[in-house]
Prior knowledge:
CATH superfamily of the largest domain: P-loop containing nucleotide triphosphate hydrolases
Mean pLDDT: 83
Number of domains: 3
Number of strands: 9
Number of helices: 16
Helix content: 40-55%
Distance between the termini: 59 Å
Strand order of the largest sheet: 2-3-6-1-7
Amino acid sequence: MIEIVGPSDSTALILGDSGTGKELVAKALHSCSERAGGPFIPVNCGAIPRDLLESELFGHRKGSFTGAISDRKGRFELANGGTLFLDEIGDMSMDLQVKLLRVLQERTIDPVGSTQSTNIDVRVVAATHKNVETLIEQGHFREDLFYRLNVMPIEIKALQERREDIPVLFEHFANHYAKADKPPITMISGSMQLLIQYDWPGNVRELSNLVDRYSALYPGQQVDLRKVPSAMIPSGIRTIADSNGSDALSTLMTGFAPIDQSVEAGALLQIDASIEPVPLDEVQRVIMLAQGGDSFPEQGMQLKQHLLEIERSLIKQALGRAEGNVSKTARLLNLQRTTLIEKINKYGLSETS
């Protein structure tokens, strides 16, 4: 869509939740256009005070108001021959909307304090995370301006609605944040699956920040979320991992190790591989089956019940190793303390603790 709309000189309106990358799309539209050699000027209409936004957009003349000690070009003039990106257009006041509508129609601007109009050659790309049609119904946005802006609409879906993009975006940001002397970070398959299951309320911006974080913590390494401090993992991902019983159990059975022996401070405590298993024949048999050491029973099995039994067994072992200390047990199992207490109560292990 960007490649189709980009070469057009028509006004475009980008719609999408906060953090979906609307400014990146605007820059891509500019890069695809014949104006690519001209300036790309962004303006956040929600970040500039209302009484200053008119001067920021259209400029002002010396002496037009207190503090105007010289002529100043506005963003429209600065973007002449290029693209002006009006971000968060839904936050623009009604009186400025009227003036913007006139600029889009006449292709001229009136700097504050000027008696003469100035011709401009600018492509306008606007964006908002708000529902513009709702704003129109509420009387907060001009319908005629909406139709003037909405010539080329581009809607960006939230990241949770395009989960197939997550591995590609991860790779893109990993390359972007890679250290000069290190290769980009990668992520093991199981951890990438957790990222794909996560809803990403902060959208692409949140994913970018997470990759930036891990690129700083584990430069050039393969990231395994089982070995990342819980404070460095979004709570939503931790919740998914806790609720995914089979994955959590396979994690516990393999034990933990630092991602890199040189990054001891960023590693979790290891579960001692010498812990003797609880003598439950059925649990041991299921573990062997999961590890490929046994044949699947012809009569089948109650998978959920078996997993619960394995989880109970491992928690009981960890409690024994920690001598009933819940906080230490939680560290051994890489669980939140509150989550562990819930499971202890669920399995009736309180007496053990």
